[in-house]
Backbone:
């Protein structure tokens, strides 16, 4: 070991000890938690599946828990009551993000919507997104695009023949093309076997995996330059791939001649030279950063949720039969599902809520940071502390949910234990999109995509697992990342169940 590296480690240990002594001398009562180790703190306690490891620790230390990750104070909220206190009483205090390598190296150095510091620039980006992409009017205006891309998907599945299909891959292509038509006025990929589609899926998965890593450099800054886990170097390479992808899209759009586009990118370019409120002018970097947010957060989360839903229904054939019976009653068998049908699909809605409960797309909320010290449940929360909300643990809390590990959509039906619970951030026992002012900006868009996609596939096809696998043996393990992926892709045989004319693609 070189003297410089040894010196860096010794300095890091010294700083850690001084910080630890300072926190002990403050005399403030921190929430309970496991004893931290020297230098790395509780990082080893997180394991390979942090949302599960933290949920296990919560059983011992309680729903408001303190961890020390390197030099960083971390507070974990793991119950609906604690989450409610934070989002109702302390939301403004926890409205910014802590420093992290993902925002620095991938998300254009905090110039995106997801990681931008709370303030005028963030409000400007949020307003642009809310008005031009996620408003009810925008969602209604682009309804035909979502339906058309799902018609393409059903045609692809209907012509699959005897070969099994990787459902997650096809869902990702569909969601990306639908979003691409809304954002940049065209499909991004040609079809389910387009090599670029596979590359994009791989890039998105790598991003979610890297973003979910608890990088030592984020928590022990003196060791950041060593990049002990190789996370920073991987993020830099990934950013280059994403930037090339996005730059090509932007340049092709700008060089598209005199053709007039009605899409988000055209709007963003038009806003580039116009100040928007108190946020200033939109920059090229922010345009690409917004596209990065939408293409990653708006595609893989939706497609993985639908993949989980179909996997659960394959394991629960009676529930699947009931869903299809409702769909046939509302829609019939001569056409595909429309957005306009969704309000009548009560049982399907319960199935999707139950999928969000057991398989939240973001099991640990994106971290927030305390702008000032505060008190929650009688415990001191230090200024600068990172807040993590364990969405996965909250939705499996046996004190709140009857038979929490059982897939039981009936709990959300009229007369059920959670009949009035919704996923829009106001019912804190079920917050797959987060809560408060930094709730997922694309919540409404994501809900429409997930509901319509699930309804279309469950209505249009019967499903069998590939290679004769029986549903009881289906692998339901999770692969941890920023988003909750299946450890093994869902390989299935789709079997058309509607009239042949229903599978004709729309434009």
Residues:
């Amino acid at each position: 070991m070189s003297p410089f590296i040894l010196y860096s480690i010794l300095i890091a240990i010294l700083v850690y000890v001084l910080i630890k002594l300072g926190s002990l001398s403050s005399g403030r009562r921190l929430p309970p938690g496991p004893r931290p180790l020297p230098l790395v703190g509780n990082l080893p306690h997180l394991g390979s599946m942090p949302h599960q490891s933290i949920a296990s620790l919560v059983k011992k230390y309680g729903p408001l828990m303190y961890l020390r990750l390197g030099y960083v104070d971390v507070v974990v909220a793991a119950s609906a009551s604690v989450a409610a206190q934070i989002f109702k009483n302390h939301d403004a205090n926890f409205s910014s993000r802590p420093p992290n390598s993902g925002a620095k190296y991938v998300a254009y150095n905090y110039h995106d919507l997801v990681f931008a510091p709370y303030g005028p620039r963030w409000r400007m980006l949020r307003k642009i997104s809310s008005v031009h992409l996620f408003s009810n009017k925008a969602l209604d205006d682009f309804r035909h695009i979502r339906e058309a891309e799902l018609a393409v998907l059903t045609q692809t599945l209907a012509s699959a023949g005897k070969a099994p299909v990787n459902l997650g891959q096809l869902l990702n292509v569909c969601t990306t093309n639908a979003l691409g038509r809304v954002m940049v006025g065209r499909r991004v990929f040609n079809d389910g076997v387009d090599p670029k589609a596979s590359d994009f899926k791989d890039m998105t998965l790598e991003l979610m995996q890297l973003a979910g890593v608890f990088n030592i450099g984020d928590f022990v800054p003196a060791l950041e330059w060593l990049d002990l886990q190789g996370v920073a170097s991987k993020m830099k390479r990934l950013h280059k791939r994403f930037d090339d992808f996005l730059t090509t899209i932007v340049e092709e759009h700008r060089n598209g001649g005199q053709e007039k586009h009605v899409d988000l990118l055209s709007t963003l370019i038009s806003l580039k030279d116009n100040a928007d409120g108190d946020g200033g002018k939109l920059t090229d970097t922010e345009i690409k950063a917004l596209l990065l947010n939408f293409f990653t957060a708006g595609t893989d989360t939706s497609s993985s949720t639908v993949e989980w839903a179909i996997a659960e229904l394959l394991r629960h054939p009676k529930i699947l039969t009931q869903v299809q019976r409702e769909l046939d009653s509302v829609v019939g068998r001569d056409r595909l599902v429309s957005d306009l049908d969704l309000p009548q699909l009560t049982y399907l809605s319960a199935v999707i809520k139950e999928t969000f409960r057991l398989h939240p797309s973001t099991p640990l909320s994106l971290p927030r940071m305390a702008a000032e010290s505060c008190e929650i449940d009688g415990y001191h929360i230090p200024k600068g502390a990172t807040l993590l909300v364990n969405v996965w643990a909250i939705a499996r809390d046996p004190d709140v949910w009857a038979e929490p590990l059982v897939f039981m959509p009936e709990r959300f039906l009229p007369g059920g234990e959670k009949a009035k619970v919704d996923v829009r951030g106001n019912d804190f026992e079920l917050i797959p999109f987060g809560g408060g002012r930094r709730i997922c900006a694309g919540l409404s868009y994501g809900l429409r995509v997930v509901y319509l996609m699930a309804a279309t596939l469950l209505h249009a096809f019967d499903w069998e697992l590939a290679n004769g696998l029986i549903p009881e043996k289906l692998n339901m393990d999770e692969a941890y990342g920023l988003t909750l992926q299946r450890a093994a892709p869902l390989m299935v045989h789709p079997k058309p169940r509607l009239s042949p004319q229903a599978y004709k693609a729309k434009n």
Summary: The domain at 3-503 is CATH 1.10.630.10 (Cytochrome p450). The radius of gyration is 23 Å.
